[in-house]
TrEMBL record:
SUPFAM superfamilies: PLP-dependent transferases. This is cysteine desulfurase. The lineage of its organism: Bacteria, Bacillati, Actinomycetota, Actinomycetes, Streptosporangiales. Its cofactor is pyridoxal 5'-phosphate. Keywords: Iron, Iron-sulfur, Metal-binding, Pyridoxal phosphate, Transferase. GO terms for molecular function: cysteine desulfurase activity; iron-sulfur cluster binding; metal ion binding. PANTHER family: CYSTEINE DESULFURASE, CYSTEINE DESULFURYLASE FAMILY MEMBER. InterPro entries: Aminotrans_V_dom, Aminotrans_V_PyrdxlP_BS, Cysteine_dSase, PyrdxlP-dep_Trfase, PyrdxlP-dep_Trfase_major, PyrdxlP-dep_Trfase_small. Its EC number is 2.8.1.7. Residues 13-371 form the Aminotransferase class V domain.
């Protein structure tokens, strides 16, 4: 994806899809068409019915992408809201909530809050050096019989490492616990069929696969019994889960992006995976001491977490303004603490601070990757040279 800056109009290679993906053309057109119409989706007149029909179509399109029924979907402002709804609904006071140590803050901070408010217990499952979740603490918690809900992400936002949810779901359900998954980075990038993946709830954000920012959804499996604990109380929209007038243009954009992602999913995933391999191989050949985090585990096709030992990631980014990458989760940018994900995988503080995340997507080209390899190699060399010069007496 080529983007022009406001200052020098230079072309920027965009490799930060895990932060947000460019808006798909189909989503833009659906949004513009909705913006040209008037009507509240809760109104019974013709304009209201038109708005409601756009919402219904989007719900159907998203359901096809996820392999669920439209009635199992609740529209939200994004995965953060969906995660809050899921954990607050699924948790029971005084019981145990289990999650993993490498979750996004939108899970970890909510989990800490609800267990503190409910005088309960929080268990954070550790991971090995490749990012794979260790199940022993979950087995112990389940034997104790007080687990209310287990939340484990499908794909990590920093490393792209995929979580094998099968054993987690089995242990949780045998213990009578609900299972939730934050699938924000997974949806629209790899095939997903909720008829086969037996989670009870699942969260997503549309802007990760080409929908606009500010729209997402929570899947709640039909037949699951739990209290609604809405964050927004009012008119009772979305079956009482989320009050407020529906964001029809955003929802229409989400549905259009879901349909576009579904129809191109396999081809896009294969092409993006090939480009990621080219990127990683190119960086390894130019910078032989760099390391790929999570490369021994199954990963998302478009995510490369690369450590450049001894070189501060923020300095590398500053030295290559033509490349839009990340030195961690965009949602935690500016934080003085190192990546909790990389630290949980056993990286040192210095190595965690020397790690860049490149995330590719549907519009990434071979030329983008070639430019990224050359720019990164040059930037790392320049920063190392500057550091060596500064260190001289």
């Amino acid at each position: 994806m080529n983007v022009s800056t406001d200052t020098d109009r230079a072309e920027v290679v965009y490799l930060d899809y895990n932060a947000t993906a460019p808006l798909r053309q189909e989503a833009l057109e659906a949004m513009l068409d909705s913006l040209g119409s008037v009507g509240n989706a809760s109104s019974v007149h013709m304009a209201g019915r038109d708005a409601a029909s756009r919402v219904d179509l989007a719900r159907q399109r998203l359901a096809r992408l996820l392999g669920c029924t439209p009635g199992e979907l609740i529209f939200t402002s994004g995965a953060t809201e969906a995660n809050n709804l899921a954990l607050r609904a699924g948790y029971a006071s005084g019981q145990t909530l289990v999650t993993t140590a490498v979750e996004h803050p939108a899970i970890l901070e909510v989990a800490r809050a609800v267990t503190a408010d409910g005088a309960g217990t929080l268990v954070e499952l550790p991971v090995d050096r490749h990012g794979a979740v260790k199940l022993a603490p979950l087995e112990v918690a389940c034997r104790q019989g007080k687990v209310a809900i287990v939340s484990a992400m499908l794909a990590n936002n920093e490393t792209g490492v995929l979580t094998d949810l099968g054993p987690i779901i089995k242990l949780a359900h045998e213990a009578g616990a609900l299972v939730h998954s934050d699938a924000t980075q997974y949806v629209g990038r790899l095939p997903l069929d909720l008829n086969e993946l037996d989670v009870d709830m699942l969260s997503l954000s549309g802007h990760k696969f080409g929908a606009p920012q500010g729209i997402g959804a929570l899947f709640v499996r039909r037949g699951i019994s739990m209290p609604h604990r809405p964050l927004l109380i009012g008119g009772g929209q979305e079956r009482g889960w989320r009050a407020g007038t529906l964001n029809v243009p955003g929802i229409a954009g989400l549905g259009a992006a879901a349909e576009a992602a579904r129809t191109r999913l396999h081809d896009e995933a294969a092409r993006i995976a090939r480009l990621r391999h080219v990127l990683e191989d190119g960086l390894r050949s130019r910078l032989r001491d760099c390391r790929i985090n999570g490369d021994r585990s199954a990963r998302l096709p478009g995510v490369a977490s690369v450590t450049f030992p001894g070189v501060p990631a923020d300095a590398v980014l500053a030295a290559m303004p033509e490349i839009a990458a990340s030195d961690g989760s965009a949602c935690a940018s500016g934080a003085p603490t190192p990546s909790h994900v990389l630290m949980a995988m056993g990286l040192s503080r210095q190595d965690a601070d020397s790690t860049l995340r490149f995330s590719l997507g549907y519009a990434t080209t071979e030329n983008d990757i070639e430019r990224a390899i050359a720019a990164t190699a040059r930037a790392v060399a320049d920063v190392r040279a500057a550091m060596a010069s500064t260190a001289k007496p």
